[in-house]
Design goal:
CATH topology: Rossmann fold
Helix content: 25-40%
Order of helices and strands: HHEHEHEHEHEEHEH
CATH superfamily: NAD(P)-binding Rossmann-like Domain
Strand content: 5-15%
Structural class: alpha/beta
Strand order of the largest sheet: 3-2-1-4-5-7-6
Largest sheet: 7 strands, mixed
CATH class: Alpha Beta
Radius of gyration: 17 Å
Number of domains: 1
Distance between the termini: 23 Å
Number of strands: 7
Shape: globular
CATH architecture: 3-Layer(aba) Sandwich
């Protein structure tokens, strides 16, 4: 037993831990949510993780994002130094990218991106393997975080907008969403790492559960 993952294998058992190690996971966006999902998956034994992002770190990221001490550096490059075995894609997520990108090789797609239109198109394209994060900013109560089908979310503006746009498109398939119905605590995009990080850790937990069910 590899000492690095000894405690994980003791928890999951040899057969299920082997499933975790063989899973192929794509994380879209590695900011306040995605970086914690990455850290959790990496420490839990997932060996094939691809991250996709386009941003560079600035000082305002340092309250919530893993790797953000590397101000001015591409997030993908900074995180590759922290998690050497990951695959990185430095790519802007837009509608053209969603249309052209091949999601087929991945067992799970973890959407931790910010752009609403892109999130909607990702859902349409790979809902069967999708776990989506909605709004984690403007909140500070981690006990309010929930996991549900997109159609059973409540109290979150982003989730509501996504639901409405999917209804307009006559899209009715289910996918998993991590959200919080906590009321906004500020008007601007204030953020708290306990919540953004907990979103990422919850996404990781949901990913592990789906892997074990597969």
């Amino acid at each position: 037993m590899n000492d690095r993952f000894q405690r994980c294998e003791l928890l999951f058992g040899e057969e299920d831990f082997s499933k975790i190690q063989k899973a192929k996971i794509l994380i879209l966006g590695v900011g306040g949510v995605g970086s914690y999902a990455l850290d959790c998956l990496y420490r839990s034994g997932v060996l094939d993780i691809t991250i996709l992002d386009y941003d560079v770190y600035d000082e305002t990221n340092q309250n919530r994002q893993i790797g953000s001490e590397a101000v001015g550096e591409l997030k993908t490059e900074a995180l590759k130094k922290l998690y050497p075995s990951i695959t990185t894609i430095n790519q802007q997520m837009n509608m053209t990218w969603v249309e052209e990108f091949d999601f087929e090789p991945y067992d799970l797609v973890l959407d931790c991106a910010d752009t609403t239109k892109v999130k909607i198109e990702i859902a349409k394209k790979c809902f069967k393997k999708l776990i989506m994060s909605t709004g984690s900013a403007k909140r500070f109560d981690t006990s309010k975080i929930e996991v549900a089908s997109i159609w059973k979310t409540s109290g979150d503006r982003l989730a509501r907008k996504i639901r409405n746009e999917l209804k307009k498109a006559k899209f009715d398939r289910n996918f998993t969403v991590v959200f919080s119905p906590e009321e906004d605590k500020c008007k601007e995009k204030g953020s708290f790492v306990a919540v953004t990080g907990a979103f990422g850790l919850t996404i990781c937990s949901e990913a592990i559960k789906k892997i074990l069910k597969s």
